[in-house]
Amino acid sequence: MTVAANPVPRAPWRLWRSPYLWLATIHLLGDAVVVLTSGLLVLLTVAVAILAWPLAYVGIPLTVGANRFVYYVAGWELARARITRGQQIQPLVPPLPTGSRIADARQAVTDQGLWRQFLYYVLLLPLAMTWIVLIVVAWSVPPVLIALPAYYSNYAAAQAQLGPFVIDTVTRASVVAAIAALFLLLASPFLIRAASALDAELARSLLGRSETGALAERVSQLVTSRQQVVDSVEAERRRMERDLHDGAQQRLVSLAMTLGRAKNRLGDKEPAVRTLIEEAHSEAMQAIAEIRDLTRGLHPPVLTDRGLDAALSAVAARSPVPVRLSVDVQPRPSLTIESIAYFVVTEALANVAKHAEAAQAEVRVTRVGDVLRVEVRDDGQGGADPSGGSGLRGLTDRVAGVDGRLTVDSPPGGGTTLIAEVPCG
């Protein structure tokens, strides 16, 4: 984002104490030097870019290099504006390589940023000449006129003339000096301020990215970073599922088998010990079932191996409410999107089984273009409130994490329809 140049304070008593007044003057004087150095370099570089393009293998690298050099030179100008005016400008970005030498050369010549920067130096030439005249008027002429009463007597006989006015008396010389002093104190700083503001606007509009472009780029970066976070969280879920399935669950299975063998070998001996073993065996089996349900909710292996159709078929088969399932998601979306769709369906069917008192449910998962649509319907009692329970709020947050949208239509006595739409491009 572009930050405007720091202005000279508006209050008259602060103008002369402001460093920006003098730094802006230095910057405006430097424009003439920039035109004669950087401006000529850019002119020659653009000429090389245009003339070298048709020279095939020799000219193409020259054209691309010339394009990059113009951006490099413009960076000097941005640094100068930052030092003298405190103006922060987001620089233009050169075109990215396409992988084709000819396409890169064509892109370098037709690059809009190249011509914007070239136009900056073209317009800076007349402005630099104007700034020199303005600085002379603002800072050089008033001191000369202020001192007029001191040296007026040397020219009194010749009747000194200031434009249409003849200075033939000390009184008139003193009036001119007073006017010049007021001009120096009040008008000169504002002239410099206005010139600096115009110069800053020229640099901002031609050398910097637009506010919209900068914001769009920032939004794109945030979307990318958020997607990376979502993907990393999903990868962590899959890792936890593998660790639970291959680690803790297998150990519990081994423990349950060992307890079962101990119970069989003990037979009818030691009834108290046998009771303890039976309780431990029952707890182990219950822990195995809970871990299996937990890992199935995190990310079942069948989802990774065979996709949504197979994974949701297993969920529908386990549901205590009869479920009609329809899945059409070709081409297959990413694992992150599949996991979200799986989570939505399993949570929705769990809510149907717990709260809806439904006789049947229907699940439809379809992909239309770059949108995955998940629809879960039931014929239960309705009345579901997305703001009233953590389950539906969790679904909404999970879907919103990837720019998706979840809606719930649940009139009392009219069943519930849950629709989740997730981008999967």
TrEMBL record:
Biased composition (Gly residues): 381-392
Domain named Histidine kinase/HSP90-like ATPase: residues: 342-423
EC number: 2.7.13.3
Positions of region (Disordered): 377-396
SUPFAM superfamilies: ATPase domain of HSP90 chaperone/DNA topoisomerase II/histidine kinase
GO MF annotation terms: ATP binding; phosphorelay sensor kinase activity; protein dimerization activity
Keywords tagged on the record: ATP-binding, Kinase, Membrane, Nucleotide-binding, Phosphoprotein, Transferase, Transmembrane, Transmembrane helix, Two-component regulatory system
CC terms in the record's Gene Ontology section: membrane
Name this protein carries in UniProt: histidine kinase
Organism per entry: Kribbella pratensis
